[in-house]
Design brief:
The chain has one domain: Nucleic acid-binding proteins (OB fold (Dihydrolipoamide Acetyltransferase, E2P)). It contains no helices and five strands. Strands 1-2-3-5-4 form a five-stranded mixed beta barrel.
């Protein structure tokens, strides 16, 4: 399981199931990526406001069956 930290611009956000989201992000280091974010739509999620389209966020990408974003 590899981890990367990078600044990213959130381009698009799609709902995926009840609590998950798939983001389209752009980073200088990796280019354009689709990343799955787990449990971001929970009422107690601290990530929800940072991962809206148009925001610049520092993300930690975890490569496990594709990239997954976790709080950085």
């Amino acid at each position: 399981m590899l981890e990367y930290v990078s600044d990213a611009v959130v381009l698009d956000r799609e709902e995926n199931g009840d609590l998950d989201v798939v983001l389209l992000i752009f980073t200088k280091k990796f280019g354009k990526l689709r990343a799955k974010v787990k449990s971001v739509r929970k009422i107690t999620s601290k990530l929800a406001s940072h991962l809206e389209p148009g925001n610049l966020s520092q993300v930690r990408l975890v490569e496990k069956n594709g990239f997954q974003i976790t709080d950085a």
